[in-house]
Write a structure and sequence with these properties.
Helix content: 25-40%
CATH architecture of the largest domain: 3-Layer(aba) Sandwich
Strand order of the largest sheet: 8-11-12-5-13-14
Distance between the termini: 67 Å
CATH superfamily of the largest domain: P-loop containing nucleotide triphosphate hydrolases
Number of strands: 18
Number of helices: 13
CATH topology of the largest domain: Rossmann fold
CATH class of the largest domain: Alpha Beta
Length: 384
């Protein structure tokens, strides 16, 4: 809502925290026109951890910067918590941005300031509604009288944030004395200083080693769950998306080519680029190709079938392979197996050689498909 030139975020009440519609971003480089983002629409719901993935030059960082208008779109609309940011006056936009935190690949800390002062920096000019003596709350219908935070209030806020990110013992240290993971934790604490509704993460783990990346992702999960902050993560690593996100959009050449829940995208990708990204996170295809390229591992005989079986959810725990033998007299030789946990849901893949009478094998495959399991026949030895 607008109150005499000030922009105040209302309490979260709608299902859409971020709504980008028909976003275009065009740059002019000399005589060349570059369309960095092309007609992109994305809905991020309150409480999401939303991943935007693409290779370098896909437009993902440009897109995320339109959310806080660090990059103004050439056309389209940008809504955060129901407010059209493109319609705000400069002072209103400044206040709106306080509720949209952002962290970066290279941390952007001030090297001459201590950890405490880096986190405290956004609070130096922060203000709070004044509650007069005898009052118990601020009248929401009245113009709020705002006062600066006291030094004690700033200290309490910074101390609580450093405790949240696990750096309470580093308050007096300087960025040069910290590891990359610790620097990113300081950046996260600083981004949370103004109690944002949204946290934008632009390649926030790209400069970190795998172990440190995992610890930062765990911290972001904690921020999302404990503080209820909606998070948007820009990355070129599908492993990051798999670990933390509940939804994902895949970008290529400035366009979103596929989007949905992480579970849906991982179990039923439609585009080749998406399939390539998924393979970097699961290595399933690499494992299957290794088996297929070694004839001695396959050991298929005349009449044998080579099948890929994919499970999702409860079906992963079903003893289907055992039933092939006991119910259909079909021998199953498991050549490759993999189980991933995606959004708390088990997703399994098996590469299996089947031996037996052709009619029995076909009956067995029909039975498996009837259990809601995906079956793909890769080879039928001696068949078509």
């Amino acid at each position: 809502m607008l109150v005499r030139g000030r922009f105040l975020f209302e309490e979260k009440k709608g299902e859409h925290m971020i709504k980008l519609e028909n976003i275009d971003v065009t740059f002019t480089q000399g005589k060349k026109v570059v369309k960095a983002v092309r007609n992109v629409s994305v809905d991020v719901e309150d409480g999401d951890i939303y991943g935007i993935i693409g290779y370098s030059g896909a437009g993902k960082s440009t897109l995320v910067r339109t959310i806080n208008l660090l990059q103004r779109p050439t056309s389209g609309t940008v809504e955060v918590n129901g407010i059209d940011l493109l319609k705000l006056k400069p002072n209103e936009l400044r206040d709106a941005r306080k509720k949209i935190g952002m962290i970066f690949q290279h941390f952007n800390l001030m090297n001459t300031l201590s950890v405490f002062d880096n986190v405290a920096f956004p609070l130096k000019k922060a203000k709070k509604p004044l509650v007069e003596e005898g009052e118990t709350a601020v009248d929401p219908t009245a113009e709020p009288k705002l006062v600066k935070l006291t030094k004690q209030e700033i200290k309490e806020k910074v101390d609580s944030l450093l405790q949240l990110v696990g750096l309470e013992d580093k308050a007096n240290s300087y960025p040069s004395q910290l590891s990359g993971g610790q620097k990113q934790r300081v950046a996260i604490a600083r981004a949370l200083a103004n109690d944002p509704d949204v946290l934008l993460c632009d390649e926030a783990t790209s400069a970190l080693d795998p172990k440190t990346t995992y610890s930062i992702l765990e911290l972001l999960k904690k921020v999302n769950e404990q503080l209820g902050i909606t998070i948007v993560i820009i990355t070129h690593e599908m492993q990051v998306v798999k670990e933390i996100c509940n939804k994902v959009a895949v970008m290529e050449d400035g366009e979103v080519i596929e989007q949905g829940t992480v579970l849906d995208i991982f179990t039923n990708p439609q585009r080749n680029l998406t399939k390539d990204f998924i393979d970097t996170a699961t290595h399933i295809n690499q494992g299957i190709e290794t088996v297929l390229s070694h004839e001695q591992l396959l050991n298929l005989k005349e009449g044998d079938y080579l099948v890929k079986i994919s499970f999702v959810g409860a079906s992963t725990g079903e003893p289907l392979i055992t039933k092939l033998s006991t119910q259909f007299q079909v021998a199953a030789n498991i050549l490759f197996a993999n189980v991933e946990i995606i959004q708390e849901t088990p997703v399994g893949t098996l590469l299996v050689g089947l031996s037996g009478e052709q009619a029995s094998i076909e009956s067995a495959l029909s039975y498996i498909k009837g259990q809601g399991v995906s079956v793909e026949v890769l080879e039928e030895k001696g068949g078509a």
